[in-house]
Each structure stands twice: as structure tokens, then as C-alpha cells.
Design brief:
The chain is mainly α and about 625 residues long. It is about 60% helix and about 0% strand. It folds into three domains: about 65-210 and about 235-295, MFS general substrate transporter like domains (Growth Hormone, Chain: A), CATH 1.20.1250.20; about 300-355 and about 580-595, no CATH class; about 365-460 and about 470-580, MFS general substrate transporter like domains (Growth Hormone, Chain: A, Up-down Bundle). Helix 2 runs antiparallel to helix 10 (about 280-285), helix 4 packs antiparallel against helix 18 and helix 14 (about 355-380) runs parallel beside helix 16 (about 425-450). The longest helix is centred in the middle third of the chain and has 33 residues, at about 230-260.
């Protein structure tokens, strides 16, 4: 199959390995780059009828994608394997006679003996830090360094943080808390700075290695004509990227929990450090084969100005009038350069209509991720019934099982049946799956309350009237573990449909020079959602657990309904949005924007025109 995208993105497979591959995107779907005059049907852009009737399949995934996924796996192993030890390291005392902090089979591991309040404060700060820093990492990537260079520098900072954490836990330091604590804090801050700058850039980088960014016709060996769809390819890449993330996280947590208990903290911090050192080595060997997007300047100011300009004249003291003005269907139309014309266009408006449309979709998606992440965070936080030491592992294990199942069975079956399972539909179903998970948990909790001898206080101490001494807890009921894990299966399905698809959608719809920023903003929304979820912690105790799960079920269901009715128009326009040019933006002057060729066509316009010189198969 001919690859017509070579004019705007070099193919990492065919490139000279000694030549750096750098991508500059004046238009991501630049029509002039594509050869529509080929006599061979394979490789042709599909017509509207073909897009409606032909089955869609993903393209082959370049091997460079797997190197980026491995880097993310290692980074997640190192991050989660390290932070899992923070709580006991700060809260618990150093075991008697120990110089490593290891508690052994029957003891409690610890080091600084600062208590629960200090431990909670430090871990809460770390969570806040790694949610906020991505905004900085995205900014320097989009404006100054580019994604690849930012990732390299971020890893260097994270490695430095890891090394300092190891120093804080070596035997001669850990036995002196006044020396160990400040060293630990410095390491924590540096590791968070590196990790936070790494995260918003790695997910755009992985999909940028897929060079073909337009639909094309392909004839299979069976003779079937199919559409090779870039969105299906991106979906597959992000699904397995998410699998690598979860595998790295769960192995890091399992391995370092064991290491903390039996080997001590300096080994626990050293093992992730040694593993993450593989990342810069792999990046160096692959540096000339990666597709790399150069920095394209700051667009935050222009995005903010667009929003203010769109609101101009729409606000009134009359709330009803304000609502009508904001929902009259012209909010985003009036900020398109084509609407204003060259004479009325402000000097800062140095972009085209396509860039405005991609900005709109990116902003809407980032905001909706607040509700999506809120449901997911609250659900996982509040689910009960499973032993505490299994909770961190159950969700990622289920996700790792379900991802190949969806990619190899569910999605191909739907494509063969010509059922369009678009991103908007996936996310909507993700909300409903989250709601079903909470309903499942509520039903199980009602059963627990009805069958427990303690009634609605099933997880409390055994009351005196039942022979309790104030120390003994209520005996557990006889309930199979499979009944309890059903909610986690539904949460896993919800996360696959909603969270993974959000990553995919953010990449494919956001402006090229805002992809890292959109990812960072989505991570910030995840942090806000987690904080809001903490507000429901007062319901996470007997006898309010049924109300807890019930309220989450209602919120998730309403979130799904609201999401669908808000974004259903984007679902109808899915193909049109995918075929939009990336948009052009000139950060220094308006002259280039005002002189744009009026004859430039999008893929959609070209596809609507009669195909010249192509053979029907």
C-alpha cells in the first residue's frame, strides 16, 4: 500500500537511521501531499459511500511504538514502586536493631517515625505535585524543547530524584532522621518534577510514531476491500500503551512491597533507579528513528483570547438573555478568521478555521474528563468487600486481561458487523459501565447488611449484646469473591472505554501544538476529580455504604447522559473531524494567515469530489 503521507511525516521504517526525523506540521492533512491520481485502487482515499459501507481496520503498528511503550512501562514501574514505600518510610519507626528499615515477616517496616499526619501531608503533597507539574512539562515541550527533548530532560531529573531517595535510605543516613528527612524531601520533589514533565509528553509521542494519518483503501488477500483507518490504529496503540502502563504499575507495587518488607528501603529505592536508567539508553539508540515534532511556540495566549473574543457581547444582566446568547450556535463561529474577513480580523488572530475547530474539541474533551475521572476515582476509592491488600492489584489485572479481549475480539466483531463504535459512544458507555459497577456494589452491600449478624454495621466491632468485648470485629459473611469482584470488572470495562478513549481522542482532535498541553490539563482534571472524590469519604463507612454506592451510580449515569447529549453532534461529525487539516497558526504576524490560499481543500472535500483515474475493484 502506498504511503502518501511522506510529505509531512517521515516513515521511521524507511528512513536513514543516521538521519534525524523531525516533523513540521503546516497542515496535518495537507491535500497537496496526497496522490489521488493513482491507477491502483489500493491507497485511494475512500469516498463517502465507501466510508459508509466498507469495514475499517487498523494499520500495522511500527516497532518504534513498542520502544516508547516499554519506556513508559519502566517509568511507571519506577514511579509506583517507589511511592508505594513513602507512607511507611515516613510514618513508622525504624525497627529495633535495623539499619535498613525492613520489618521482616512479622514486623512493621519503617524509618522516620513521624506519624500518620506527617505521612499523609507528604504523600498528599506528592500527589498534588505530580498532577500540577504536567502543565509545566507540556508548556516547555510545546514552546521551547519539543516532546522528545523534554522527555529526555525529564527522565534525567527523575533519575536524579531517584538517586537522592536512595541516599536518604542508606544505612548511615536512615539512622539519622534529621539528615534522612530533608534528603528524602529533595528526592521526592525532583522525582515528581521529572515524572510530571514526562507524563504529558510520552502519550502524544507514542502515536506520532504512526506516520499514516489518513484513511486509505486496502485490498485484503481474501479480496475484501477495507478502509485502513488511522483512528482505529491510534485506538489500538493507546489500548496496548495502557496495558503497558498497568503492567509496569502493578509489578512495581508488588515487587517493591516485598522489597520494603524483607530487604529494606535503600534496596527498595535502588531497584527502580536501576531500572529507569534503561530509559535514556533506549532513547539514545532510537533517537534518530523517532518521529519528532519540533516546538511550535506558545498558543495559550491565543487560546485565551479566542475564548474572550467569543464571549464578547454575550453577557447581560438578564440571565435568560445571557443563556440564549451563549447557546445560539454562533459562539465558535464568530472567532473563525473566515467569518471576520481580513479587514475585521484582529492582529493576534494568526490562525485558520481548522485550528479553531480543533481547539474547541480539545477544550470540551479536557473539561469532560473531569467528570469521567471523578467517577472512576470515586468508584475505586469507595469499593469495599475485597481485602485491602488486593485492591491495588485487582483493577489493573482486570484491565490487562480485558484490553486484548476488546482489541482482538470485541472491536473486530463490531467492525465486521459494520457497527461504528466511535470514541463518543465508547466514553458514554464507559460512564454507564461505571454506573452499573456502583449498582453492583450497592446490591452486594445490601446483601452484606441483611446477612451480617451486626446488620448495618458489618465492618464495625462486635457489639456487647452479641458477646463482643469492644476489640473483636464482626465476623465476615459467607460471600464468594467472584460476587464481589464483578464491580471491579465493570470498572475495568469503564476505564477501557472511557479513559483510554479519552487519550486517543485528545491526540487525534487537539491542535498539534497543544497536544501535550491538553494531556496535561486532562491530568490536572484527574487530580481535581480525585480531590472531589475525597469529599465522599464521609460516606465510606457503615451504615452509609449503600448510599455511597447509590449516589455514585446516579452521578455516573447522569454524567453519561449529559456527556452524550453534549457531544452527540461531534459523534455525527466524527469522520469530518478526523479529516480536518491540523490548522495553521503563525505566532509572529498575521500576514501569512491573511494570505492563505482560498483554494485549499480538506480531505473531506476531496473525497466528495469524483475520483480521477482510479480503478474500481
Amino acid at each position: 500500500m502506498a504511503n502518501d503521507a511522506g510529505n509531512f511525516a517521515s516513515d521511521p521504517h524507511s528512513a536513514d537511521p543516521k538521519k534525524e526525523i523531525v516533523v513540521a506540521y503546516p497542515y496535518e492533512h495537507n491535500i497537496s501531499s496526497f496522490d489521488y491520481s493513482s491507477d491502483d485502487a489500493e491507497g485511494d482515499f475512500p469516498t463517502q459511500e465507501e466510508r459508509r459501507t466498507l469495514r475499517r481496520v487498523p494499520d500495522k503498528i511500527p516497532w518504534m511504538v513498542y520502544t516508547v511503550a516499554f519506556i513508559e512501562l519502566v517509568e511507571r514501574f519506577s514511579f509506583y514502586g517507589t511511592i508505594i514505600a513513602y507512607t511507611n518510610f515516613v510514618q513508622q519507626p525504624l525497627p529495633d536493631g535495623s539499619r535498613t528499615g525492613a520489618g521482616g515477616a512479622d514486623g512493621q517496616s519503617g524509618a522516620l517515625n513521624m506519624g500518620q499526619r506527617a505521612s499523609t501531608g507528604i504523600t498528599t503533597f506528592n500527589s498534588f505535585w505530580v498532577y500540577v507539574i504536567p502543565l509545566f512539562g507540556a508548556y516547555v515541550a510545546d514552546v521551547h524543547w519539543g516532546r522528545f527533548k523534554t522527555i529526555c530532560i525529564a527522565l534525567a531529573v527523575a533519575i536524579l530524584g531517584h538517586i537522592i531517595l536512595v541516599i536518604s535510605a542508606i544505612p548511615d543516613i536512615i539512622t539519622h532522621p534529621k539528615a534522612s528527612l530533608p534528603t528524602f524531601i529533595i528526592g521526592l520533589v525532583l522525582m515528581g518534577l521529572g515524572t510530571g514533565s514526562f507524563k504529558p509528553n510520552i502519550s502524544p509521542l507514542i502515536v506520532e510514531q504512526v506516520s499514516n494519518r489518513r484513511m486509505s483503501i486496502k485490498v485484503l488477500p481474501s479480496g475484501e476491500r477495507v478502509i485502513v483507518d488511522p483512528t482505529a490504529t491510534q485506538s489500538r496503540v493507546y489500548h496496548y500503551f495502557y496495558l503497558f502502563i498497568n503492567f509496569g504499575a502493578i509489578t512495581g507495587v508488588l515487587g517493591m512491597t516485598y522489597s520494603e518488607k524483607y530487604l529494606g528501603y535503600w534496596i527498595t529505592f535502588l531497584l527502580p533507579t536501576g531500572l529507569i536508567l534503561l530509559c535514556p539508553i533506549l532513547l539514545w539508540f532510537c533517537r534518530n528513528r523517532y518521529v519528532r515534532t519540533p516546538p511550535q511556540g506558545s498558543v495559550l495566549g491565543k487560546a485565551f483570547r479566542i475564548f474572550l473574543f467569543a464571549n464578547k457581547g454575550r453577557w447581560s444582566l438578564n440571565p435568560l438573555k445571557t443563556y440564549r446568547n451563549l447557546h445560539d450556535g454562533t459562539f465558535w463561529e464568530v472567532v473563525k478568521p473566515s467569518y471576520l474577513g481580513p479587514n475585521r480580523r484582529p492582529s493576534w488572530m494568526t490562525f485558520d478555521d481548522q485550528w479553531v475547530m480543533r481547539l474547541l474539541v480539545a477544550l470540551l474533551l479536557a473539561l469532560c474528563s473531569l467528570y469521567n475521572n471523578f467517577t472512576s476515582q470515586a468508584a475505586v476509592m469507595n469499593l469495599g468487600g475485597i481485602p485491602n491488600d488486593l485492591i491495588p492489584f485487582l483493577d489493573p489485572v482486570i484491565i490487562m486481561v480485558l484490553i486484548p479481549f476488546c482489541d482482538l475480539l470485541v472491536y473486530p466483531t463490531l467492525r465486521k458487523a459494520k457497527i461504528r463504535f466511535t470514541p463518543i459512544r465508547k466514553i458514554t458507555i464507559g460512564f454507564f459501565m461505571g454506573s452499573l459497577a456502583m449498582v453492583w456494589a450497592a446490591v452486594i452491600q445490601v446483601y452484606i447488611y441483611k446477612t451480617s449478624i451486626c446488620g448495618n454495621y458489618a465492618s464495625d466491632v462486635l457489639p456487647a449484646e452479641l458477646g463482643g468485648d469492644g476489640l473483636e470485629y464482626c465476623p465476615p459473611i459467607n460471600l464468594t469473591v467472584w460476587a464481589q469482584t464483578g464491580a471491579y470488572v465493570l470498572i475495568g470495562i469503564s476505564e477501557i472505554f472511557a479513559s483510554i478513549t479519552s487519550l486517543e481522542y485528545a491526540f487525534s482532535k487537539a491542535p498539534v501544538n497543544m497536544r501535550s498541553l491538553v494531556m496535561a490539563f486532562a491530568m490536572l482534571m484527574s487530580g481535581i476529580a480525585s480531590a472531589i472524590g475525597e469529599g465522599f469519604s464521609s460516606l465510606s463507612t457503615d451504615p452509609l455504604l449503600v448510599w455511597n454506592y447509590g449516589s455514585m451510580a446516579v452521578l455516573s449515569f447522569l454524567g453519561g447522559v449529559g456527556f452524550w447529549f453534549t457531544f452527540r453532534k461531534l459523534d455525527i461529525e466524527e469522520d469530518d473531524l478526523n479529516m480536518l487539516p491540523a490548522g495553521n497558526i503563525n505566532l509572529t504576524s498575521a500576514s501569512e494567515t491573511q494570505s492563505m490560499e482560498s483554494t485549499e481543500m480538506s480531505d473531506l472535500e476531496r473525497a466528495s469530489a469524483p475520483r480521477q483515474g482510479s480503478k474500481a475493484t
